[in-house]
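Supplementary Methods, section 5.1.

A reviewer requested that the exact input to the structure prediction be made available. We therefore reproduce it here, unchanged from the version used in the analyses.
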Amino acid sequence: MSTTTKRKKKARQKLKELVINRDWCKGCGICVKYCPTQVLELDRRDKVVAERPEDCICCKMCELRCPDLAIEVFTETQESEDNEE
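The structure derived from this sequence is encoded token-by-token as follows.
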């Protein structure tokens, strides 16, 4: 018997750009609290900044929860291959 390996392609979201409109941000910190990977922080002016964008998993919780619509998450689709036996 031979073992066959199948490759299955999966679409995965990759961060293209994280846009923060600092004029609209009131510094409430909701986005910071909802970010599961601690990408966002409030700076000394109490405005949100993306301190670790490389850790973003593109869940868009910050964009969805921001009451001032000050955050936009732009993604691109990246295909990855998974091995299945």
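Helices lie at 30-34, 61-65. These observations are discussed further in the main text.
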